[in-house]
Specification:
Length: 118
């Protein structure tokens, strides 16, 4: 399976592409937070479980990318960014058969994630 880099802006309901800084991370300010399905605060560093990815998002992706995105459902990730619309961003890395790492990021809205206690 070959996966490509994609990002989803959960609030604009469209796929977007972002560039990362030289360190490879996009960080939000300490005051920014989002909320999960239960109303719990989500900040950079919070661990969340991906509950669902909407069918409307998956339908906009090529099948190989949609397969990658679907594999993130049910998994736990650390939030690396809270965007200006309150979306919490998580990332997963895949290794291709030739050893190349491929990162995939997903922006989550409140109904798409729940905070996981350590």
């Amino acid at each position: 399976m070959q996966c490509y880099h994609f990002l989803f802006d959960a609030f604009a309901s469209k796929i977007i592409r972002k560039r990362r800084g030289s360190a490879g991370l996009i960080m939000a300010s300490d005051s920014e937070e989002a909320h999960d399905i239960n109303g719990n605060a989500v900040r950079v560093g919070t661990r969340v479980r991906v509950l669902r990815i909407s069918a409307s998002v998956l339908s906009q992706l090529p099948e190989s990318e949609a397969e990658c995105a679907r594999s993130m459902e049910g998994e736990v990730f650390e939030v690396y960014e809270i965007d200006e619309w309150g979306g919490a961003w998580v990332e997963k890395m895949w290794q291709s058969d030739d050893g190349v790492a491929s990162p995939h990021s997903l922006g989550l809205g409140p109904g798409q994630m729940e905070v996981v206690s350590d």
